[in-house]
Amino acid sequence: MAKVLVVTSGKGGVGKTTTTAALGAALALSGQAVCVVDFDVGLRNLDLIMGAERRVVYDFINVIQGNAKLQQALIKDKRLSSLSLLAASQTRDKDALTEKGVARVMDQLREKFDWVICDSPAGIERGAILAMRHADIAVIATNPEISSVRDSDRIIGLLDSKTVKAERDETIEKHVLLTRYDAARAQRNEMLSIDDVLEILSLPLLGVVPESRDVLNASNIGSPVTLSNPSCAPARAYQDAARRLDGETVTMDIPVVKRTLFGTLFGRAA
Amino acid sequence: MNLLNFFRRSGSAPVARERLQILLAHERTTAGHSDLVDILREEILAVICQRLSVEPDLVQVSMQSEDAISTLTVDIEIPARAEMLMAANG
Question: How many contacts (CB atoms, under 8 Å) link A and B?
Answer without folding.
Answer: 40
